Amino acid sequence: MDHIHPLQAFREKQTPPLSQRQLADMLGVSTAAISRWEAGERKPDGELVPMISEKTGISPAELRPDLAALMGPDKTRAA
Fold first, then answer.
1. Number of domains in the chain
2. How far apart are CA 79 and CA 76, in angstroms?
3. Residue 78's CB: how many other CB atoms inside 10 A?
4. Distance of alpha carbon 71 from alpha carbon 38, whole angstroms
5. Range of the domain at 44
6. pLDDT exceeds 80 at position 73
7. Does a structural domain hold residue 1?
């Protein structure tokens, strides 16, 4: 699979790169959650998306493309 999950890309762009544990601590979630999200096994809960977007700069639409239409055009970009 050639697609890299946006959270994995975010982790790898940091200097030094963040571990899944460090990102989990930053977001207040479990390492297992980060692993499942990055593997595409699960998606972040809709109520977590705004906080994740705010802390990482990843747009809500990138985190949950399936919810992009529900979020509306003003919520598809990170603040």
1. 1
2. 9
3. 17
4. 22
5. 6-75
6. no
7. no
